[in-house]
Every structure is written in structure tokens, then in C-alpha cells.
């Protein structure tokens, strides 16, 4: 993994942190893109203490703000020029209806639209590398979502957190597929995964009882971290493109996820939504 530069969003905890651990141990140069500088510094210190051969850097990235996404991407391009792997990992499960700084429903904005913009802005840096890989953290929960443009900027009315999360994860998967088709035959690939039901901070807002019921069925963060590390740096994944795999359950995709017309439509709509930041 030496001389491989990997940027992981939301790497201060959970699946992102566990993946960073494996990559640091393998000697990669890792960039932690996080919203909370104190948490990021703590993660950086823990990762540096592993004594890997590569560097462990931090950049600030708040997916709640498209301006922050733009600033982070500009910094990455100026500071590094090229990156080998982008892991779009950061995400949240939002129980209540909130909006991002740009007025998007929070799960749609943070889990999907901001990573969409970040990826677009970093494509030239991935193309600068000998071979670039983009990895999207989707979810089996995409089955519970559908693409509803009227909810992208939802501010009121009935809100189903699971449906909104499902929409954002379906959008991650559709984006990965649309991008993979565009990148076919180039030096950059795009793939997605379901990490499993993973024991991480994502369940921090669940009632204690509900979490206690779920906990025995959750897998440790090391399981998806192993798969993501393979997708990021293994020879086996060097040319795989447009795939969806799972660290835990079967990697079945819903008919919406396989709908390339829907993927292309969402892609164009998303380009319009982020145009002023491109
Ligand atoms: N855990 C599961 O069972 C599961 C299942 C399917 C898919 N996933 C997906 O896996 C990915 C990682 O989740 P996880 O389970 O590791 O969750 P986690 O432990 O809660 O970690 C999520 C990371 O995303 C960061 N994040 C949240 N909002 C952000 C924002 N506005 N800007 C930048 N970073 C932000 C968090 O930062 P803070 O620490 O500052 O909050 C944290 O670093 C997510 O995309 C999630 O949807 C998880």
C-alpha cells in the first residue's frame, strides 16, 4: 500500500476509522476528511500511534455545507495534486426532519448530494493518479427508499426517517452505477457496497432498548473495513467497475437501483443542484 493516497470521509469513528486503521497498518498515506476538528485530531493521533509507514493527515469537511465541500476539494487538489482512492463513507441516520445549510433535507444533502459534489470536484485528482478508485458506502436500506424529487428540499409535512435514509442510500448506489458507466475504459473505477448491520455510532440516537435488541445482530466495524480495504487497494479490485457488494448480507439490488434511466436522470438533476460549486 506504500505510495497509495486514500481519502476517507467521516474517518474519525465507525467504519471509516476502522478502514483507516487497516490502511495505515498497510503503509498507505491516509487523509481523514472530518467535520469535527477535535474528533479528527484524536483519531489522527490514534492512527499515527500505529506506526504505519505512510502519513496520516486531516482536512476539514462538513457535508452539511456545499461551500465546505468545495473548500475541502480545492485544498486537496492544491495540497496533494492527485489521490488514488476516494472513500465516500461519511453519513448519518436522521430521526427528525432537518435541512442542510443549502436547504436540502439533511439525509439527502449529507449522505448523497454533498458526496456527489465532492466526487465531481475530486475526479481530476483521481484521474491524475496512475489508477483511481471511488468507493461509495450504500446500504441494503436502499430497498426502503425511492427517488422523490419533491422531498429533496422538504421542510415540513410528514417525514419518514427510514424512507429518507433509504432514498439517500439508493441515490448513492445510482450515482455509483451512473459514474461507473461514464468512467468505463478510463483509469478510474466506481463501486459501491453494503457494509452490513454494523455496530457503530450511527445508532447513537436510537432509544437504548431498541439498540440493545439490535446489538447481537450487528457485526464489528472490522468486517466492512476488510472489504473496503480490498476494494481500495487489492489487485483483485484493480479493474472491477460498477459493482455492488456486501460485507454481510446478500448483495441483492432493488429494481430501482438497477434502473439506469433513473440513475442518469438523478445524475443530471444532481449536476443542476450543485452547478454553482463546480
Ligand atoms: N452502521 C451500519 O449498520 C451501516 C449500514 C449500512 C450503511 N452504513 C453506512 O456506512 C457509512 C459509515 O457509517 P458508520 O456506521 O461508520 O457511522 P458512524 O459511526 O456514525 O460514522 C459516520 C461518520 O460520518 C461523519 N459525518 C456525519 N455527518 C457528517 C457531515 N455533515 N460532514 C462530515 N462528516 C459527517 C461522522 O462524523 P461525527 O463523528 O463528527 O458525527 C462520522 O465520522 C455511512 O454512510 C452509513 O450510511 C452503515
Brief sketch in words of this structure:
This protein is an alpha/beta fold and 278 residues long. It has helices at residues 14-25, 37-48, 66-80, 106-128, 161-183, 208-214, 222-233, 260-274; strands spanning 5-9, 29-34, 56-60, 85-88, 132-137, 188-194, 244-246.
Strand content: 5-15%
Low-confidence stretches: none
Q: Kindly report the spatial arrangement of strands forming the biggest sheet.
A: 3-2-1-4-5-6-7
Q: What is the average per-residue confidence, as pLDDT, rounded to a whole number?
A: 97
The quaternary state of the protein chains shown equals single chain
- Fold-level CATH name: Rossmann fold
Number of helices: 8
Cofactors, ions and other ligands in the entry: NADP nicotinamide-adenine-dinucleotide phosphate
Q: What share of residues is helical?
A: 40-55%
**What's the number of domains?**
1
Largest sheet: 7 strands, parallel
Examine the secondary-structure arrangement and name the CATH architecture. Answer: 3-Layer(aba) Sandwich
Strand and helix order:
EHEHEHEHEHEHHEH
Task: Please describe the structure with a list of short key phrases separated by commas or semicolons.
278 residues, alpha/beta, Rossmann fold, seven-stranded parallel beta sheet, 13% strand, binds NADP nicotinamide-adenine-dinucleotide phosphate
Amino acid at each position: 500500500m506504500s505510495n497509495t493516497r486514500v481519502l476517507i470521509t467521516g474517518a474519525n469513528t465507525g467504519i471509516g476509522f476502522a478502514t483507516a486503521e487497516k490502511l495505515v497498518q498497510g503503509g498507505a498515506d491516509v487523509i481523514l476528511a472530518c467535520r469535527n476538528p477535535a474528533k479528527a485530531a484524536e483519531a489522527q493521533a490514534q492512527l499515527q500511534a500505529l506506526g504505519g509507514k505512510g502519513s496520516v493527515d486531516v482536512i476539514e469537511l462538513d457535508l452539511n455545507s456545499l461551500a465546505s465541500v468545495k473548500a475541502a476539494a480545492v485544498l486537496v487538489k492544491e495540497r496533494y495534486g492527485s489521490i488514488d482512492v476516494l472513500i465516500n463513507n461519511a453519513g448519518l441516520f436522521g430521526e427528525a426532519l432537518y435541512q442542510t445549510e443549502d436547504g436540502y433535507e439533511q439525509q439527502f444533502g449529507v449522505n448523497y448530494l454533498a458526496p456527489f459534489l465532492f466526487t465531481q470536484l475530486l475526479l481530476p485528482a483521481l484521474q491524475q493518479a496512475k489508477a483511481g478508485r471511488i468507493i461509495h458506502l450504500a446500504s441494503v436500506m436502499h430497498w426502503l427508499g425511492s427517488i422523490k424529487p419533491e422531498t429533496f428540499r422538504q421542510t415540513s409535512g410528514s417525514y419518514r426517517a427510514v424512507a429518507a435514509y433509504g432514498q439517500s442510500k439508493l441515490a448513492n448506489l445510482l450515482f455509483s452505477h451512473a459514474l461507473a458507466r461514464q468512467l468505463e475504459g478510463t483509469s478510474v473505477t466506481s463501486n459501491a457496497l453494503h457494509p452490513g448491520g454494523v455496530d457503530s455510532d450511527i445508532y447513537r440516537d436510537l432509544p437504548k432498548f431498541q439498540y440493545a435488541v439490535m446489538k447481537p445482530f450487528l457485526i464489528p466495524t472490522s468486517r466492512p473495513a476488510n472489504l473496503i480495504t480490498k476494494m481500495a487497494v487489492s489487485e483483485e479490485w484493480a479493474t472491477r467497475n460498477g459493482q455492488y457488494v456486501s460485507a454481510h448480507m446478500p448483495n441483492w439490488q432493488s429494481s430501482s437501483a438497477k434502473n439506469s434511466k433513473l440513475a442518469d436522470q438523478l445524475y443530471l438533476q444532481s449536476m443542476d443542484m450543485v452547478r454553482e460549486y463546480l
